[in-house]
# Entry
Amino acid sequence: MSAHVPNVETPATEVVAAAPAAAAFPVERAAKQSGRSRARGRLRILAILVLGVAVGAVGGKWYAHRPATNAPLLSASASAQERTILYYRDPGGAPSWSATPRKDAAGRDYVPIYDDEEPSFEGSKPSTLAATGSSKRIRYYRNPMGLPDISPVPKRDAMGMDYVPVYEDEGANPTTVKVSLDKVQRSGVRTETVEARVLVRPIRAVGTVKIDERRLTVVAMRSDGYVEDLFVNTTGQTVQAGEPLFRIYSVDIQRAQIDLLVAIRSPTTLGPAGIEGAMQRLRNLGVPESRIREVRTTGGNPRTIDWPAPASGTVIEKRVINGQRVAAGDELYRIADLSRMWVIADVAESDLAAVKPGTRAVVTLRAYAAQPVQGEVTFIYPQLRPETRTARVRIEVPNPDSRLKTDMYADVVFRAGADQEPVVSVPDSAVIDSGTRRIVLVAKGEGRFEPRAVKLGGRGDGYVGILEGVNEGETVVTSAAFLIDAESNLKAALDAFSQPEAPK
# Structure
């Protein structure tokens, strides 16, 4: 059996028309054979053959006239295979990368990043932006732990931490260091605003309570005499000014009184000058004015005189007894006004510059530790004790309830600088002192910090004054400053390595 097979170039209409002719021969032979079933089987085979030939003809004609678009697609695929894929980044711009193809949580494919899309350290700056979607261009990536390792592409260290990007705008100030915000939080970085404040520096010393020398009075006779009666006869007794202390008989006072009486009774002979001279002799003997007026008024000559207290206070010394003969110049009583006392403090030589008259001080007596007393420096003694290298400083404190006793020990704290003007200051923890330099870290925002060299002033209350380096209103780092300083030193070293060598 043979069949007419159309050419592949024959149109489909010709193939359909030729199909009845090709099928005539098998049909005629099938009629001559016996059995209708055999003829039907051959007809089915012939129909399948004709249909296959027709489909092949149509496909061959389409292949001959197909559009020439396959060659460019193959060329583009070959070109893509020649580019090297460095890594794959998150399609949504999140800071996530992968070394192999993967999908994000939403089922989107990660975007491949080729080698020609990353910045180069030798050539010109790339035109592409950072993968994070920021408007800043990334120069390189540095190790997050401060190790001397940089990378031109995003990567992670052995612990899985992302390398920190270093942007182009950070090159404007070579001392500025950039720290990621999550690292700032993990490191416990704290900042504080620079303000002008009064720096009060506490200076501690040990003191002793003493009697105010200006409030001390001595009772002494200016002539010989005999004590006939003693009114104040105990030490510690409190007296008021004018109150009688003792009764005394004195020959010299008696003679001076007689001279005054004679001058009064003979005004024409001695005149006013004689009366005034007699009165002055009584004053020279310490006779009070009340006794002189009594003699002039009454014209009498009392044998004894009640000696009055010259000042109010407490008798701290008593050196007289009843019936005692006293000589001119003998000290009979010592009276002290204890309403105000002195505290003599020993201040170290190194702290003397901060203490001056007028400086406030807090005095705490060891007997009354819960009841400190406020005082003020009134004098600094000119001598320095060579044994202890300390100077004595006098502090005047009130003593209304007589709690302060002579020779009590006291702990003294001077508030040096309390009367000074406010100065720009930062916390002590903000200053990094390496021995050769003193710097503070100024926060610039967005995780950027700038080291500043500063000139320090006085200290007090946990703060240090800044004479030069920072201004009021800036923000400085108060904790984890050493970590950021180490980052700054590393950045300076990396920048130095990345600089091209000067032509020789």
